[in-house]
From TrEMBL:
GO biological process annotation, one example: regulation of DNA-templated transcription
CDD domains: RHH_NikR_HicB-like
Lineage, highest ranks first: Bacteria, Pseudomonadati, Pseudomonadota, Alphaproteobacteria, Hyphomicrobiales
PANTHER family with a match to the protein in the record: BLL4998 PROTEIN
Protein's UniProt name: CopG family transcriptional regulator
């Protein structure tokens, strides 16, 4: 079963909040660059720095994605998708870089019957019941 892969964009509601610790001198440098107008705020600086590092390692990331057969972007699994997998007697090994979403109407029983394992580098969105049912299958 081939799914569509969509490139993610940074939009409100489509981002994950993280917390980092930064030394005072580094923070001062960031604030100076913001004050001088190079960046609109601290978050803008940090997002830009992250993108620059990802670009620096782009070849290694591409090779790793191929080596690990990861899907890149947004991958949604609907109840209909999982019912089709079940009907075909298959099981999914979900491997995503980005966002994997299991639809809210997927029952824990259907998820258990159709999902062998889940590896998500990024974020997994699913109901609490489905996450609890699959907890031993989520890496």
């Amino acid at each position: 079963m081939a799914g569509e892969i969509h490139r993610l964009r940074d939009k409100a509601g489509e981002t994950e909040k993280i917390t980092i610790n930064v030394g005072f001198v580094d923070l001062g440098h960031i604030d100076l660059l913001v004050q001088e107008g190079f960046y609109s705020n601290r978050s803008d600086f940090i997002r830009t720095a992250i993108r620059n590092q990802i670009a620096t390692h782009a070849d290694a990331v591409k090779q790793s994605i191929v080596r690990h057969t990861l899907e890149l972007g947004l991958r949604r699994y609907s109840r209909e998708d999982l019912e089709a997998v079940k009907a075909a007697g298959g099981r999914l090994r979900i491997q995503v870089i980005g966002l994997a979403t299991i639809a809210e109407d997927v029952t824990p029983e259907l998820a258990l019957a159709t999902i062998e394992s889940i590896t998500v580098l990024g974020a997994l969105q699913a109901s609490k019941a489905v996450k609890a049912a699959l907890s031993d299958r989520i890496a």
